[in-house]
Amino acid sequence: MPLEALIFDVDGTLAETEEAHRQSFNEAFSAFGLDWIWDKELYRELLQVTGGKERLQHYIGAWKPRGSEVALARFAEIYEEKSARYAVLVASGAAPARPGVRRLIIEAHERGTRLAIATTSLRGSVETVLRAMFGEEGPSWFGVIAAGDVVANKKPAPDVYLFALDALGCGPDTCVAIEDSENGIKAARAAGLPVIAAPSYYLSGDDFSLATSVLSDLGEPNRPCHQIGGLRFARDYVDIDGLNAWFSKLQQFPAGARTDTAKITGQSVET
Known about the structure:
This protein is of the alpha/beta class and 271 residues long.
């Protein structure tokens, strides 16, 4: 089956956005008189909860910080403030694209490989990132933006990927997911998708063993990526020709083996 579509996660995958999220949460807390500070180590722990609203709700319920009653009463306002501050940060260049991402998406758009998003982030935040990376037309390049509360169950549940596949009208054997986290990989795998994983800064300690290929990033011709594990690419950067060759190689494995990374580790692709 030919490769039809690339389905991207957003936060940590398209860009290292989590530091901008953390900063805007802290600024929103301060604006509402809360003395809460999410430092980097705490935020790394909180990121195991997918979805910004869910993350904040989890923090209030598990940590019970001073001011929790106020935060719960004004939860929607606090989150709206956080989202507004995040949009300003991203528009100012605070979350640049990860290596190879912008190049690969432009090439896919120009060559007719379909593009989709599958994320727990709100649609407004997704569109902010896409506009910062590609200009005002950026969101229109993606035939499907499955974001926010489009499904009830967040990653690691497969729901958002199943929604994206249905909206694309594609089977999982014709698409590839690009992710940065263990929860994202589990979600994509449960939906039947092969996964290219590029660990992000905050989630570098996650378990990536379920990914089909693990790379440091997508690389550039003049800035090669490091191929960490799984099915290898012939070049040290990901482009459409390399993806098609990678995808064709993957199809040669029996269906059951395609979900067993151990069976394809060390295999190489030629273009």
